[in-house]
Amino acid sequence: MNMARSVSILRRTFMSRLHGAMCPKSNAATQVLTRSYMRSFTTSAKCQDAKSNIGSSEENLTVNFINRNGETLKATAKEGESLLEVVIRHHLNIDGFGACEGTLACSTCHLIFDQKAYDKLSSVTDEEMDMLDLAFGLSDTSRLGCQICMTKAIDGITVRVPTEVSDVRRDQVEKQNKQ
Amino acid sequence: MPGPSTLTNLVEFFWRDGFSRIHELQQKHIHEYGRIFKSRFGFQFVVSIADRDMVAQVLRAEKDTPQRASMESWQEYRDLRGRSTGLISAEGKKWLTMRSILRQRILKPRDVAVYSGEINEVVADLIKRIQTLRSQEVDGETVTNVNDLYFKYSMEAVATILYECRLGCLNNDVPQQTLDYIAALELMFSMFKTTMYAGAIPKWLRQFIPKPWEEFCRSWDGLFRFSQIHVDNQLREIESQMEKGKEVKGGLLTSLLISKELSLEELYANMTEMLLAGVDTTSFTLSWATYLLAKNPQIQQTVYNQIVENLGKDVVPTAEDIPRVPLVRAVLKETLRLFPVLPGNGRVTQEDMVLGGYLIPKGTQLALCHYSTSYDKEYFSAAEDFQPSRWLRHGYLDRVENFGSIPFGYGIRSCIGRRVAELEIHLVLIQLLQKFEIRTSPKTQSVLPKTHGLLCPAGAINVRYTDRREGQ
User: Where in the cell is it found (chain A) (predicted)?
Assistant: First the structure.
């Protein structure tokens, strides 16, 4: 009984206190709190290898995505921004792209680069490599878009979204059904 | 579509204790019926898939909110007690919301890397514990039932991350609160089979056979109580820090309490379910890795040599060091191929799909047979053998494409604790091998796997931890 009550009191104070604490007009102490929270966690798909100009708000770089239907989607990008972030920010219509939100749990943001651009990209981690193993339409110049950050060196690149390979079995069944 | 009859299945599971041999039955049925077959399980119709390409097809076709299987009894308990669902038991939008919040904190490798220090402290305690335990044996080297030891390691390591506190599992005297939790956890797993049976029994029968359901609720009560205590403790700690005007620093739980993206009930539920999912899974895998290394001394020596050459004999490793010892990663992958903790996983189809030439309607329960694909000779040469080197890349572009062995799953509903588990296992394996040579002893028996919810060792794994000598 006592336990339950103290927890419910605790809960109420928690709610009210933290609500107060997280309001925009917070005092200095809670600002420190918010900052330290922001520090200990990478809260977005920000690239770790983009050493300079993180947070630069200038959109002075460009990327071209060739979508599955062959259409070219041109987008502006900021330095240090990942290709996944570019796709999300511009609401580019690439079906199923970046399902795991850059947490290296899938390979839906798989992109194919031309050799010249590929050679300029940051090195690939074991975890990205493992996920690429499970990507379809893999090529020698494949990378995951969530791991690639825009830099001046690759400004203006064109990347290709791998086309869905047609499923042989489905074709067979459709044929059978027609017969 | 071919498959065993309902009657055969009933006899197999209820009469011949098929539950503990689910992984073997998978292989048997595939041999008889092929890589896709149907079976009926009481009222439940299941299509089993043991084809790597079909598994890939199913997982790649997933949309926003994949569904694993019906978790009705879990849901029912939560409704009964006014509790929230967590990542295991939730479905649909609710699941996606919680997943999105949690994955941004504990799934990215670099977010997890910061826990190296905390995990290494637990590793140091584990090594001390091994030294104590072996000194109690006649030969001064053997530790019996290593899973008991690794269970405590995994629980301690997960708790440092989830609750930001130490539980004292590896102390000589384990605190009562922790013992209570372990008892609840054991009850949970000992009842797993009973609840499987109970799940097949209609609800109205509970008034005649009430025990399974009562025990199910009792063990959940214990699990929830434990995480609630720790969440509330942390909450009090944060409050007192704030009252003193101090800067509040912390890890996962602190950030979740501060950000308020999850309600307190959702936090209790997710902490409960993540702890539940993060203990046995890691400890079974460590037990098997220990067993396999003891049984394959030459392979163990190769791994040890790589550690010494690339890291050093007694350098305490961190996450950043792991890429320099690819054989350690390979040992984990190969251990999980031979003993996938989850021998099979479920998916409910979200739309009609054609699999292996069959039209599978929306809403069909699929069983992805990971155990069988892991041992498929077409996918893995010498599939029965422990060969970590098969996972090494021999060049930058070398691919080891394989949906045959995906122990953590793939995609948006894959294991959220994957990177935590990997780090816990990589760091402990390196340090165990730096310190000890793991050897078989006269007490080492042949141990086979059995399915008990998870794939676990059917017997005790007993090995010797022999100190590494100078120049070894």
Answer: Mitochondrion matrix
